[in-house]
Specification:
Blueprint (H helix, E strand, L loop, with lengths): L17 H16 L6 H16 L9 H9 L7 H5 L5
Length: 90
């Protein structure tokens, strides 16, 4: 399996043209991410909170690529994103 190459599918949901396949994925993506309702006021409040945190940027606080990799690798397998974001928005 190490040396095997992944095949490219020529037909997806009955569509065979690369442009049409891309459009199909774009439509499904839009459908998926617009299917969950959310409160616009909550989102605006969250945006304000995030922007205020960005305004408090300290040049002495530097996070390197390796810091991020180490943090991600230390997460438990299957860890939900909500548990990472929740402490940031409280």
């Amino acid at each position: 399996m190490k040396n095997s190459k992944a095949g490219i599918c020529d037909i997806v949901d009955g569509v065979g043209n690369y442009s049409d396949i891309a459009s199909l994925f774009a439509d499904k993506y839009e459908e998926l991410y617009s299917s969950v309702p959310y409160d616009h006021d909550d989102m605006a409040s969250l945006k304000v909170e995030i922007m205020s945190a960005v305004d408090e940027y300290n040049e002495e606080c530097v996070v390197s690529f390796n810091d991020v990799v180490e943090a991600v690798n230390s997460l438990k397998h299957g860890k939900m994103m909500d548990s990472l974001v929740s402490p940031l928005i409280m």
